[in-house]
Amino acid sequence: MESFKPGYVYTRFRFVQGIGGLTSDHVSWDYCVRSCTGKPSSAIGYVNDDMIRVVPGDLIDFTFRHEWGLEKYASPDKTIKKKFPLINWVDIPDFWNEGKLTRFWAQHKIFTLPLACMGYPRHDPHGYGHASEAKKCLRTPVKKACGGNGNIELAHRAINLSHQAALA
Fold this sequence. Notes:
The chain is α+β, with helices and mostly antiparallel strands. It has six helices and three strands; from the N terminus they run ββααααβαα. The protein has a three-stranded mixed β-sheet. It is globular. The relative contact order is 0.26.
């Protein structure tokens, strides 16, 4: 915990692309494969996982009490996406909770850093096979090849550029 940077939320990624230094411990899907799931492959960014997060005290209310503003990010007319497009960002599934959360945090400049937390959920009532898939690389994480060796600050810079474009 002492190594965590203040002001950042730590999560695993549901989708990620263009960020280097990640392993299967940093993702919540397609754990044991080398490739990353963010599309298009030329983009940068992430979609936050919604299962687990580590949050500094000054962001705790905002990052866990987001329901008051989250629904408009999934509106059928996509007005939020038009008003605040993330430039060269991976595709965000706006109808998933993970997508709503990611877009909401990005619009409010809440930046994410990767959390290495393999093995959740231990069981899956929906039949997605998280536990059986994760077992394959539980003891030996797989290095991810996410379309480059960019650091996550490049993704954060893309969020800042999106804010500047939205204000212009």
